[in-house]
Task: structure prediction
Amino acid sequence: MKAICKDNISYEKQLIEKGLDEFLMMENAGVELANFIKKKSKKIHNAKILFLLGTGGNGADGLVAIRHLKKASAYVLAYKKSTIFLKQEQILQNIGFEFLQEEPCFEDFDIIVDCVFGSGLNKALDEKLQGIIQKISQSKAIKIACDIPSGLGQDVCFKADYTLCMGVVKEKLLEDFAKEFVGKIKIAHLGLKIQVQNTSGFLLERKDLKLIQKKCSFNKGDLGHVYIFANKSAGTLAGLGALEFGSGLVSLVAKESFSPLLMLKDTIESKINAAAIGMGLNDLSILKDERLQSIPLVLDANCFQNADLTLYLNRKDVVLTPHPKEFSMLLKLCMNKNIQVEEIQKKRFFYVKEFSKKFECVLVLKGANPIIAQKDKLFVVNCGNEALAKAGSGDVLSGMIAALLGAKFSALEAAKNAVLAHALVAKNYKKNKNSFDALKLVKGLKCL
Result:
């Protein structure tokens, strides 16, 4: 897991308390950036590298990297130069480095590095920089952002293939709107490995995945009996998701199914270890059933339009899985807040935290970068891709979470691992992303 922070301030303060000064941190940051660029340029003969420099700390990191690369070009934007930038600029000038005086032809370069603004940007990009970024977007060069792509969250933004974060991952990089601009997120170590304090949460990685571990002595009952309350199509997908993810028995409460692997039920007829409710289901009277009061649950889809959902908000063994529109309904239902989807998508972390402060259940806010939260614990998965933007993907996820709940994972662990596995299946899919569908998602669970 990688630590997530709102900005670098508290992290750098910790490093300073441990003995690193600002100059040494900057040197380490620049070395890490230079080494990353070297790695990316290995397969390019005589790679031409261009640094686009602001005049604050982000630009100074770039100047250090240039010094260690020894062979690069740099174009400095005409902003007021900070003291730390001037010091690094003087070092380069003393060894004979010459800065470009005119705006370069961006098509001439193999690698372009954005060192203009870091995470502290709090104003709109000026017209000149917007124009430069638009020109760079036409280049086929490898694009690397130092710490954060300049203009992230604005109409014009540097579109990076890689973002090298200085020390910790910034929360803003994991908002849904950032997905297409940040590329692959990497971490630069600034000199000391420390336990990061004041984190916003953690970014889950492949190595964090935990699956149901079967033993030779197990029978189907040991892995849980999951009930799915949904319509035929959504319920079948959820049921298959639960089965392929390790559940021993899955019963679908519906009139019919398109899979012979699921048992059909009219109601709860036998032992039940977990349930997923709501996918395409119009009759939600089951939410009033007392037999669900001690059963771990996944509540999805139509549940977010039903007032009985509020009965489950303060249960630690319940997982809610709304997409942004459903989350808007949920906020209205349980907090009486009229928050539009567009506003939620701009501030996903903020609204997830607001909800989780108030209620005990686990929340999974679906999207390009799903957020999983319970009280003050928060996790993000960013390894999924556009292949998951297909009808039925969310139904499969509900079944997967239910499978882990049935196997006695805690609600938070079930949500974390199911969301991570869900994303990894899409990432592992090597064919055209447009050809991916919910059944391929179910099939892909076999390969984890």
Observations:
- The first helix runs from residue 9 to 17.
- The mean pLDDT is 94.
- The chain is about 35% helix and 15% strand.
